[in-house]
Structure prediction request, 261 residues.
Amino acid sequence: MMSISFSFLIPILCGWLAGWVVNYLSDVLPTTRRLSTPACVQCGAPFSWTDYLLFRSCTNGHSRQFRAWAVQVAMIVLCVLAWLQPPTKIGGFFPALLLLIYFGIVFVIDMEHRLILHMTSIVGAVLALVLGIIARGLVPTLLGGLGGFLIMMAFYLLGVWFSRVRAKRMVAQGLEADEEEALGAGDVILVTVLGFLVGWPLVWFCILLSILLGGFFSLLLVVGLLVTRKYEKNALMLFIPYGPYFLIGAYLIVFFPQFLD
Prediction:
């Protein structure tokens, strides 16, 4: 009983450390594009490493974001789940830990900045290729990446065409055209990376599942805004980046494969 209790500390500790990594990289990469000293998002004052790691306020008294604590808790929960039911096809708990860190970084940055960085995509592609080959071999892994790229490129080009048509209609009506796109080039790259991870033919299911998740949560958001009569003031909230939904879809496929049987 005692050994079980002590072993349970491993995923908790790993989750806390993973949360540190996700928070740090999500703070510095979007602004500096390199490993740099973390700074307060409200005033730009640099943190000492002690204050940053202990979640203390900056030198100007600004508290850390709620996101920092949410990430810590989320990473602990995800690591505990991966410890209890490790994805054996990709090598078990510790490869899963690396994958969760990658997912967390991309998730947070895309939610906060609507941005998928090339540096995270490169690292993610290498990780996904290795884990995909371990799970199902080289050919299905490469086909998964190719299939994800082609499918998403088709959606991306369709979205570009739709945005241009919408912009022309808005201008014709005397309205200011916006440049909001349903999908970005970063989403194409992300799904290519996730295609390496889940392989072919699961990549198409990953895309379908992600689109359904995005539609479901967007519907809930619309209903919530309509009920609270805040739709007009918060219409921009409807433009939620799709990257997080693709990550959730890939997470469900990799970590809960029993639901595919």
Summary: The chain has a mean pLDDT of 87. Residues 138-172 form the longest helix (35 residues). DSSP finds ten helices and no strands in the chain. Residues 253 and 260 are 8 Å apart (CA to CA).
